[in-house]
Write a structure and sequence with these properties.
Ac/AlaTfrase_AlgI/DltB; transmembrane helix; 20 helices; cell membrane; 2 domains; acyltransferase activity; 0% strand
């Protein structure tokens, strides 16, 4: 079920919300949480009912392993390894089995038949969320929680499909806080406005830019049309993913649940490291806390830290999908951070404006590998972006309408404040209501081209 659909906005969400607070008003607190958990599973199963047993199996195994880690004093490392292996194998089977078979056939000339597995929605997100839970349980950072709280922690529908990646200590206690069991008009207003802003980002901006990006990646060969394609995708993926996150945070606020921020003006970054502090923040924190630091971080010397950065971003690339392009994209970002660290150690400080330009250019170039279907398509776009096939002045007229839009989006990125955190603290007033109504009506005008969110594929 899509956030940007009539069924979700006018049926599923109102029914779930009303019944949840009705059960709470009647003091059926367990029933309220059970209703929310079952509704979340229904939301997940809307795509494919056959994968509900899969997510329930994942929840059951991880909950049992987590309880064992909390209660056992012997062989805790073995229990942890078994739990992590289950998650990695589950993710690997559904996400990477056909990728390995295809490459094995290519390298060896074998003819192993592909499994043609349908990727379960959100498997990367709910798997990483539970891996973090197990590691923290092993480290003694987890308290005992009821099963229903754990199920909600994993399945709570606003974040289930495309994040943000949650941390147990921030989420599970929220379902039992007394102040979260009271209808809160401030949260309702702020959540609804955030939802409308995210909906506008998706429907008006991201989906409009998608046409230019898709056409350019399919056909662009020269300087202007290649850059239009690349920049269109640069802003499309941001407004698509941040739009989803805004909607997820907004919907959660309706239930008095606060999800973590996932974006902080990432295209203002003045280094690759700064970019990853601002882009997909919850994934960045996961990679840092559960991969980079356990590998040794920067505690074992400069060059070991460089190696750990490369490994961390290689895993980050693989997490995004079963493709050599994602692997290359991850290695490029790891390499970008390595170069930055080397320069910071032996180079001279650069002007801030130049740092931003180099960073933004690097991000655009690497998005080409992220978006391209294969190296041939990526090479064609990059040759065009570097002017190796001519300027393409004849195609400039075709892009004349989108260029001012891209310029305005870039200017807005560089100058406007980060609104998401501010909006989550808004008080109800008529100005907020009017803005929300206008954004919602504008978004409804574009419901004739409802599309999935990009990160549903990851």
């Amino acid at each position: 079920m899509l956030f940007n659909s009539y069924g979700f906005i006018f049926a599923f969400l109102p029914v779930v919300l009303i019944m949840y607070f009705l059960f709470i008003k009647l003091r059926y607190f367990f029933i309220a949480k059970l209703w929310l958990a079952l509704s979340s599973l229904f939301f997940y199963g809307w795509w494919n009912m056959h994968y509900i047993p899969l997510i329930l199996l994942s929840i059951a195994v991880n909950y049992v392993v987590g309880r064992r880690l909390l209660s056992s004093t012997a062989r805790r490392s073995v229990i942890l390894i078994l739990g992590l292996s289950f998650n990695v194998l589950l993710l690997g089977y559904y996400k990477y089995a056909d990728f390995f078979i295809e490459n094995w056939n290519g390298f060896t000339g074998a003819n192993v038949p592909a499994l043609h597995l349908l990727l379960p929605l959100g498997i990367s997100f709910f798997t990483f969320t539970q891996i973090a839970y197990l590691v923290d349980a092993y480290r003694g950072r987890v308290q005992e929680y009821k099963l229903i709280n754990y199920i909600l922690f994993v399945t709570f529908f606003p974040h289930l499909i495309a994040g943000p990646i949650l941390h147990h200590k921030d989420m599970m206690p929220q379902f039992d806080r007394l102040r979260n069991k009271v209808w809160n008009w401030s949260n309702v207003m702020a959540g609804a406005l955030l939802f409308c802003i995210g909906l506008t980002k998706k429907m008006l901006i991201a989906d409009t830019l998608a046409g230019y990006a898709n056409n350019g990646f399919a056909n662009a060969t020269q300087f202007f049309d290649s850059w239009v394609a690349c920049l269109s995708y640069t802003f499309q993926i941001y407004y698509d993913f941040s739009g989803y996150t805004d909607m997820a945070i907004g919907v959660a606020l309706l239930f008095n649940i606060r999800l973590p921020q996932n974006f902080n003006s990432p295209y203002r970054a003045t280094s690759i490291q700064d970019f990853w502090r601002r882009w997909h923040i919850t994934l960045s924190h996961f990679l840092r806390d559960y991969i980079y630091i356990p590998l040794g971080g920067g505690r074992r010397g400069f060059w070991t830290a460089i190696r750990n950065v490369l490994i961390t971003f290689l895993i980050g690339g693989i997490w995004h999908g079963a493709s050599w392009m994602f692997i290359l994209w991850g290695l490029l970002h790891g390499g970008g951070q390595a170069v930055q660290r080397i320069w910071n150690r032996w180079g001279r400080p650069l002007p801030l404006a130049l740092c931003w330009l180099l960073t933004f250019s690097f991000i655009n170039v690497t998005w080409v590998f992220f978006r391209a279907h294969d190296m041939r398509q990526a090479s064609r776009l990059l040759r065009g972006m570097f002017g190796m096939n001519g300027l393409g002045l004849s195609t400039l007229a075709e892009s004349i309408l989108i260029l001012p839009v891209l310029a305005v989006l870039l200017l807005a990125m560089l100058t406007s404040p980060n609104l998401t955190e501010r909006l989550s603290k808004l008080r109800p007033n008529w100005r907020t209501s009017l803005l929300m109504a206008v954004l919602f009506m504008i978004s409804l005008l574009f419901f004739n081209r409802i599309t999935e969110f990009l990160y549903f594929n990851f």
